[in-house]
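Retry 2 of 3 after timeout on previous attempt. Resubmitting structure tokens to design endpoint.
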């Protein structure tokens, strides 16, 4: 069977162009429909599903807020929880007042008694009053406080006392009364550091006439030489 193409070349090109046009238009229509569909879906998600989800969340918030508000003594419970959270920092900041007795034992020489030991933790000052067998003992006590050192947690050595002054003294027939005032570094009473006070065995100042090694006992905590008279 023989077929003859009787269409001219121009007609053939026209037919191909129309066919290409229909394909392009069809593709454009499909892309447009897909774009519109996707846009509609996004619109439904944003203004439909998401809005409903937000509404549900708000209802849940209102629901659980109401349950919390209906809890008996809620304010007291929250207050207790806040106070418990603050216990740790407060414990670290507390003042270890029991170290005063260690301080007295390590710095008070023999033949020196204390009648009043006033500590002001707000002003970081100490005032000590008492009596001694001789004025030289009082001077030794003053110098012991001046030259004492304190080891911090990182191993550094600091001066725990400053402005140590023998502010008053009086001589009697049997004893010498005294009053010593000083300022102290709060670190010696801090719970964050251990109490590591070092009192030198030898003090060379003009106020000391004897070697402290002849005055201090090697175990001040048990020799009974530190006396506090009320």
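Retry 2 succeeded. Sequence:
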């Amino acid at each position: 069977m023989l077929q003859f193409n009787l269409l001219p070349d121009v007609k053939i090109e026209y037919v191909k162009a129309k066919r290409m046009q229909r394909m392009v238009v069809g593709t454009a229509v499909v892309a447009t429909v897909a774009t519109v569909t996707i846009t509609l879906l996004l619109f439904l998600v944003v203004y439909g599903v998401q809005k409903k989800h937000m509404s549900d969340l708000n209802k849940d918030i209102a629901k659980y807020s109401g349950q919390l508000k209906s809890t008996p003594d809620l304010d007291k419970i929250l207050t207790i929880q806040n106070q418990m959270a603050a216990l740790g920092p407060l414990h670290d900041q507390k003042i270890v007042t029991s170290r005063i007795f260690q301080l007295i034992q390590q710095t008070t020489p023999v033949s020196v008694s204390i009648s009043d030991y006033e500590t002001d933790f707000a002003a970081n000052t100490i005032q000590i009053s008492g009596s001694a067998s001789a004025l030289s003992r009082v001077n030794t006590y003053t110098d012991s406080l001046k030259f004492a050192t304190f080891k911090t947690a990182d191993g550094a050595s600091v001066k725990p006392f400053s402005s140590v002054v023998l502010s008053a003294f009086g001589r009697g027939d049997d004893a010498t009364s005294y009053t010593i005032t000083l300022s102290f570094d709060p670190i010696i009473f801090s719970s964050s550091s251990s109490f590591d006070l070092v009192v030198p065995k030898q003090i060379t100042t003009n106020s000391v006439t004897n070697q402290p090694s002849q005055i201090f006992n090697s175990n001040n905590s048990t020799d009974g030489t530190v006396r506090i008279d009320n």
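Attempt log closed. Residues 206-230 have pLDDT under 50 and may be disordered.
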